[in-house]
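Troubleshooting log. The previous structure file for this entry was overwritten by mistake, so regenerating from the original sequence record. Sequence copied from the archived sheet and checked twice against the printout by T.R.
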Amino acid sequence: MKVGFIGLGNVGGKLAGSLLRNNFDLTVRDLDKNLTQSFKDLGAKVVNSAKELAEQVDLIITCLPSPKICAEVMEADDGVISGLSENKIWLEMSTTDEAEIKRISKKIIAKKAIPLDGPVSGGCHRATTGNIAIFVGGERNAFDKILPALMVMGRKILHTGDLGSATVLKVITNYLASVHLVALGEAWTVAKKSNLDLAKAYKGIAVSSGNSFVHETESQVILNGSYNINFTMDLVLKDTGLFDDLAKKLDAPLEISPKVVEIFKDGQKKYGSRAWSSMIVKRMEDINNIEFRAKGFPDELTDNEPEEKGYEI
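Regenerated output below.
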């Protein structure tokens, strides 16, 4: 199977790297020539347009920062759709909007190609080693066809159902992660002002009913002071906005979601759109004139689990 990958950023570059490391025939496209050159140096092919990429491969993967950018890459005159033909598969791995996935998918189907949505979850450090989770929505037969590629990009792979279902599930999980992160800011505030040993508090939370994946990962770089989670404030605002907008479309009044959006908007205003998302807890540090610091925590997360072939759950 020939694979094309468009979008070699924080997550996409690591997913594409797993394909290349596992000897897939890989063609890449990104506006950043330095990124494409680094892949070319490792044996990938590089093309000059998304259309050219789509013409040359069987599976086209996009992993892009926003629905707007994805639409441009897909629908431009030299975009992916122009290069599609029968039985080619498009896998959208960006975190995006369900309605937008379905809108673009109609154009994919009109070319007799097959659309799938396949967002990932688990953090950039796990994307590096191919240990991230992948949700996939769409035709089961197409899912089975690309499963070998999915199994090197991710560890736990879930076919979620119809097209768009993976995107909805991903938006839900990102919302939960954002809520947990905001809550950590308040939890660390109370721990610090209670004069707890923050390193011991970290261990205590990790073995308690209050634990979360966000605590196990992001609390480490918070306590280090780097905040470097390889995910930025603007991307969290995109994700929380997608969740909040989806709830509104479903006529589902929510209480916490609007407040979380407000908090991250304030964080972006204070620290910048490209600040690490875990810096949202700095709002609490600044308000209370304290710092959440403890020795022995890394400035950046690494995945210490061995790379293993993925499997369907």
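The chain has a mean pLDDT of 96. Archived copy saved in two places this time.
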